[in-house]
Amino acid sequence: MSILKFLGLQPAAPEGRAAETETVRKIVEALDRMEPDQARYVAAFAYILSRVAHADRHISKDETRAMERIVMDKGGLSEQQAVIVVQMAKAQTKLFGGTENFLVTREFSRMADREQKLGLLHCLFAVSSADRTISTLEANEISRIADQLLLSHADYAAVRSEYRDHLQVLK
Prior knowledge:
Blueprint: H1 3-6, H2 17-32, H3 36-53, H4 61-75, H5 79-111, H6 114-128, H7 136-148, H8 153-161
Helix pairs in contact: 3-4, 3-5, 3-6, 3-7, 4-5, 4-6, 6-7, 6-8, 7-8
């Protein structure tokens, strides 16, 4: 018996627990069946989205929902798969962000073509504006990511201008 259960702090397993576990297993199996390059691409993409959402050390519910929608759309995942991928990306960002940010972004840069990189840039601004404000920290993080993706400052500025109404610095 665990100490948490002994102290009454561990909730009892719900009746549907076995069904939930089986659902999670099915989702994980579906992700495992993805072509490895596509799985790496989606994982890196989701991680970078999470990196921007966490730039201000807080990932809001609106940012999480935006990431899930984007991962579903761009990754061709089901809603359940997208939720799991985004939760994993958020956890990794919170735990290892400082050391992994550059490495994951560099890896994504190797996998993606210019159009995919520009698409990611749009998605980064969409996530950071999900709560209707793009903080200076988030804008700076997106700028760093654009540099790491080997995109020009003009590319960054062009995409940023589409979200100018949400920029905290201009409010």
